[in-house]
UniProtKB/TrEMBL annotation:
Pfam families in UniProt: Methyltransf_11
Protein name as annotated: Methyltransferase type 11 domain-containing protein
GO molecular function, one term: S-adenosylmethionine-dependent methyltransferase activity
Species assigned in the record: Parageobacillus toebii
Location of the Methyltransferase type domain: 42-139
Length: 189
């Protein structure tokens, strides 16, 4: 699997485009993860907070927003301040090797980042390390079809391919369809 290019921060506004909600509403991810008020959450590759901020509103606990680009974390801070959300911790690190404590999170998310990662095994090992037993982690990706939004077709991972890969790495894997162009894979620990 080829790793794609990193998302450019100057396009960050696009990530909050209302049209995006028609494809995947953050509320749907929150529902699938069954986020509650006592959940500690990790968002790996948080970007500008399209999912981070709505998740942070659902819990009284901390949300750890990890991103490798300082500019994206700055967008996220601005977004969170506008929404009066103050339970987010901003972490400038690579998603495959964070300083987060082990068994930290009840719920976790990685949206539209997996296709950008070079070492999928390392990322999955990191997710497993930071998740609590019985935790739920949702990976959201672009289906390998042409669409107006998202990365070029050659950078996308077909859902069947990613699902098969996940099943070789993890025992509790569930496929989620959000939209013809977007899918999710839910891992339960």
């Amino acid at each position: 699997m080829m790793a794609g290019h990193r998302f450019h921060p100057e396009k960050a506004e696009k990530l909050l485009d209302p049209k995006r909600k028609e494809i995947i509403a953050p509320e749907r991810a929150i529902e699938i993860l069954q986020i509650g008020t006592q959940d500690v959450i990790v968002d790996l590759g948080a970007g500008n907070g399209y999912f981070t901020v709505p998740m942070a509103k659902k819990t009284k606990e901390k949300v750890y927003a990890v991103d490798v680009q300082q500019e994206m974390l700055e967008f996220l801070k601005t977004h969170a301040e506008k929404e009066q959300v103050d339970n987010i911790e901003y972490i400038l690190e690579d998603v495959s090797n964070t300083s987060l404590p082990s068994r930290l999170a009840d719920k976790g998310l990685m949206s539209f980042v997996f296709h950008e990662v070079d070492d999928h095994d390392a990322v999955l090992a990191e997710i497993q390390r930071v998740m609590k037993p019985n935790g739920k982690f949702l990976i959201i990706e672009w289906e390998a079809v042409e669409s107006e939004m998202g990365p070029p077709l050659h950078e996308r991972i077909p859902s069947q391919q990613l699902l098969e890969y996940m099943k070789t790495k993890h025992h509790n894997v569930e496929f989620v369809s959000f939209h013809p162009t977007v899918y999710g894979i839910l891992l339960t620990y």
